[in-house]
Amino acid sequence: MENLKIEGREIPLDKEGFLRDLDDWSPQVAEALAAQENIALTDDHWDVIRLLQDFYREFELSPAMRPLVKYVGQHLGPEKGRSIFLMQLFPPSPARVGSKIAGLPKPTNCL
After folding, report:
1. d(Cα 31, Cα 101) in Å, to the nearest integer?
2. Helix pair angle (94-101, 43-59), 10° resolution
3. Is residue 35 helix, strand or coil?
4. What residues contact residue 59 under an 8 Å CB cut-off, 6+ apart?
5. In this structure, are residues 97 and 18 in contact, taking their beta carbons and an 8 Å threshold?
6. Distance from C-alpha of 32 to C-alpha of 30, rounded to nearest angstrom
7. How confident is the model over 5-37, as pLDDT tens digits?
8. Which residues pair with 6 in a beta bridge?
9. Backbone phi, psi, residue 42, to 5°
């Protein structure tokens, strides 16, 4: 995968498009990563992105799908704490794609 260019700055990505340096993340980087996934970020996306980052700070890992669904349900309510809701936001793999856009490492159990 090529590097991102954000405001004249090169942001290195790994071969799967994840940030090599988590400190490079910014909302502009998230928008660019989402565009690569053909996703236009909405308020619902940003809510989940913030939760993904909170999860990472709390547990020091990117969540797999089941922990992500549970965590979203605990913080955003049962309507949003469902696989189908997350799948609509971050297809085809909410844990992997959401983590990438949130600037986190790839979840260990994701293909």
Report:
1. 8
2. 90
3. helix
4. none
5. no
6. 5
7. 998 999 999 999 999 999 999 999 999 999 999
8. 9
9. -115, 180
- 7 CB burial (10 A radius; 0-12, 13-18, 19+): exposed
Alpha carbons 44 and 15: distance in angstroms, whole number? 28
109 catalytic? Reply is no
For the chain, the straight-line distance linking the first and the last C-alpha, in angstroms and rounded, comes to: 17
DSSP assignment, residue 106?
Answer: P
Q: Which two tokens stand for residue 75?
A: 């913080």
| DSSP conformation class of 10 | E
- For the question of whether the overall pTM of this predicted structure is more than 0.85, the answer is yes
Helices (H), the chain: 27-36, 43-59, 65-76, 83-89, 94-101
48, 58, 110, 111: the active-site residue: 110
